[in-house]
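Risk register update: the risk of archive-format incompatibility is retired. Evidence:
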Amino acid sequence: MYQTIKLPYDYDALEPVIDEQTVNIHYNKHHQKYAENLNNYIKDYKIPLNQIPKRINEFQIQNRGQILYNAGGILNHDLYWQSLSDTPSLPKGKLLNKINHDYGNFTNFKQTFINKSKNLVGSGYTFLVADNNGNLTIINLPNQETPLSYNLIPLFNIDLWEHSYYLKYKNERNNYIENIWNKANFDNASSIYENLF
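Archived output:
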């Protein structure tokens, strides 16, 4: 049975950037629903969640779209919650060195990420990803597409679906994009990159 990660902090931990009600609804309704839906489609498979996008051809063709969508919904949200914290952190180790090499410094990287996020059309996510050689890229993906489908390693993301910000920010998505960096947590991203490269 596929499950979401346990929320790594209390519902109010991201205040005032993201309000308690939004976190509660987002995690318990939206995120959990993807797991529920995926388990309805996959009953007899033992494939690890992060391998589903690469092994999608093993499923009946009529179910592949929904399986990818819901698997992506779990994976993308799992990463989103780990990309935030009530105790924000900057990149460190190999990841910080690579960011400094590619972007000059973290400030430049952050602004590049913000600009990319503001250019996403519709619903989706902005990701920091690595390829198999450790090269970094900032990408936008629509809906619940996961970088794993493109043989990329997701390190950090920001959820840009309206349900992630609308109760507090209404139509001011750019304010959410700017403010969320006050809760950005790169511990998980740094650990993934350190272990892989």
